[in-house]
TrEMBL record:
This is Prohibitin family protein. Pfam families: Band_7. Residues 188-226 form a coiled coil. It comes from Gottfriedia endophytica. One of its GO terms (cellular component) is membrane. Residues 29-189 form the Band domain. InterPro entries: Band_7, Band_7/SPFH_dom_sf, Prohibitin. Keywords: Coiled coil, Membrane, Transmembrane, Transmembrane helix. The chain crosses the membrane at residues 13-38.
Length: 271
């Protein structure tokens, strides 16, 4: 009898334990926790039913599942190659910052799935790069880099918006060209520098020549004005001034040898 009681009690305890396990499993399947920066896509029997926000959320056990999708800013970096307008092969590294629309993660999951980077972002980046770079020559890709980057950003942003993603920023880290093109650019740069130096030297020579011409004109004009200022009266006045200076310096003695008339008036008093 005691053995029967023990067996009965054991079965009851086993039943309680099994029931407790079932209850725990059911309860644990009835809620989910969505971490910060994520949204949960609620899938019931294979059908997308809605979006769960951050924190603690209830769900139907066993028949529903939750796919967590990040909605923070994410980074995708790819190596891309394209042809320029002048058929130069250009390689570049493109870094794309993007985010998934929190309200539309269910649509992205339904239409694309979790591997949206491979299916959407990488092809969209490659297509935008090739389409924009084909509009510019290799040299313009260097000199107009901000314009090129802006145009790529506009095109890529429109493509990502179609799939409920927002383009935050795009950075083109570098443009790499063939060795032949790089050598041609260096040669062209050297030639332009030499041409610029020659032009500066020519401008300097022309300026110096103009300065000399201007100086000569000024001197000629001054001489012309001086000639216009000389009059007979001015000449006579100059002669008188010279005679007065000579008289002031004369010591009263006549020169011993003269040729021609004495240049001074006889100042000896008459008897």
């Amino acid at each position: 009898m005691d053995n029967q009681n023990i067996g009965s009690n054991l079965k009851k305890w086993l039943g309680f334990i099994a029931l407790a396990i079932i209850v725990i499993v059911v309860l644990s399947s009835s809620f989910t926790i969505i971490p910060a920066g994520y949204r949960g896509v609620l899938v019931q029997l294979g059908k997308v039913e809605g979006v769960l926000s951050e924190g603690f959320n209830f769900k139907l056990p066993f028949i529903t599942s939750v796919e967590k999708m990040e909605v923070r800013v994410q980074k995708e970096e790819t190596n891309q190659s394209a042809s320029s307008k002048d058929l130069q092969t250009v390689s570049t590294v493109v870094a794309v910052n993007f985010s998934v629309s929190p309200e539309s993660v269910n649509k992205l999951y339904q239409q694309v799935g979790l591997d949206y980077r491979t299916r959407i972002i990488d092809p969209a980046v490659a297509e935008s790069i090739k389409a924009v770079m084909a509009k510019y020559t290799a040299e313009e890709l260097i000199t107009k880099r901000p314009e090129v980057s802006s145009e790529i950003k506009d095109m890529l942003g429109k493509r990502l918006n179609t799939y409920y993603m927002k383009l935050e920023e795009i950075n083109i880290k570098d443009f790499k060209f063939s060795e032949t093109f790089n050598n041609a650019i260096e040669a062209k740069t050297a030639a332009e520098q030499q041409a610029l130096k020659a032009k500066r030297d020519l401008d300097r020579v022309n300026i110096e020549a103009q300065q000399k011409i201007s100086q000569a004109k000024a001197e000629a004009e001054a001489l012309h004005l001086k000639k216009q200022e000389i009059t007979p009266e001015l000449v006579r006045l100059k002669e008188i001034e010279n005679q007065e200076k000579a008289i002031e310096k004369w010591d009263g003695k006549l020169p011993q040898v003269t040729s021609g008339a004495t240049p001074f008036i006889n100042v000896t008093p008459s008897k």
